[in-house]
Specification:
Elements (H helix, E strand, L loop, with lengths): L20 E6 L20 E4 L1 E2 L9 E8 L3 E10 L2 E3 L13 E7 L6 E7 L4 E6 L18 H4 L3 E4 L5 E5 L3 E10 L4 H4 L1 H4 L6 E9 L8 E3 L16 E5 L1
Parallel strand pairs: 1-4, 1-15
Antiparallel strand pairs: 2-4, 3-14, 4-5, 5-12, 6-11, 7-8, 7-13, 8-9, 10-12, 13-14, 13-15
Length: about 240
């Protein structure tokens, strides 16, 4: 290589053959977080069906969808779930909300950075973490993570249709919705300003999930296939989202 030639920018790995792709459309105005599923500005969003359930789960495969929009300041997420066996006992920030009736959004904003996971149970108790290294950890070890402070998490505005706690479990049909406003500025301390603020054409690798690890009918659903391994922490298997 000529010493004067700048190094090539890192690239995302090849998209898995069974990965899904979608578009995060630009919102004409900020959507209301408490709107009905697909109502108002949310109707502008593509619908991401969380319908690929891992075979290790139970036969409960709730119908779950996600919507995503953005503007100059933030990413907006809306989840809608037609559920049963609903349970939610985690109420604190950074608690293991995946053990409850839960939805999740994992996103990898740049091949030069790590990935985030945002997890919320049906009452909007939240876990939010950043994983600086996307490479698989050594056998027997867990990925190194950074946990944003509660003060930082306060910038992520959330709305939930249901209230916490939900115990005992509700076994009958129960529909629920969640929504979030995730300011891009909240990502800046971890990935830098350039990565934190996407523009039209920006590509993220990401996945939407639905789970309920400690419900009576555990299940693990994804928008883009996670393959045979039962793990949501597989950034190289994330689907592709393009900002429109």
């Amino acid at each position: 290589m000529n010493p004067s030639t700048p190094p090539l920018s890192p690239e995302f790995p090849v998209l898995p053959h069974d990965a899904d792709s979608g578009v995060i459309r630009r919102a004409s105005t900020p959507p209301n977080l408490d709107a009905l599923a697909g109502e108002g500005i949310w109707a502008e969003s593509e619908v991401f069906a969380i319908d690929q359930y891992h075979p290790d789960g139970s036969d409960h495969h709730p119908r779950a969808t996600a919507r995503a929009l953005y503007d100059d300041e933030a990413l907006y997420l809306q989840f809608s779930v037609e559920d049963r066996y609903v349970r939610a006992v985690q109420t604190e920030y950074q608690a293991s909300v995946c053990t409850d009736s839960c939805v999740e959004f994992f996103f990898w904003a740049s091949p030069a950075a790590g990935y985030f996971n945002v997890e919320m149970n049906c009452g909007a108790a939240m876990l939010w973490q950043y994983y600086p290294d996307v490479a698989p950890p050594p056998p027997g070890e867990w990925r190194k993570k950074v946990q944003p402070s509660a003060e930082e998490a306060g910038a992520l505005e959330r709305w939930a249709q249901l209230s916490l706690p939900i115990e005992p479990e509700v076994s009958g049909p129960l529909d629920w919705r969640l929504a979030m406003r995730l300011p891009f500025a909240a990502l800046k301390p971890y990935v830098g300003a350039g990565v934190a603020h996407p523009k039209p054409g920006t590509v993220w690798r990401a996945n939407f999930y639905k789970c309920g690890d400690h419900t009576s009918h555990p299940h693990w659903g994804a928008w883009s296939s996670i393959g045979p391994e039962l793990s949501f922490h597989q950034p190289t298997r994330f689907g592709q989202l393009v900002f429109g």
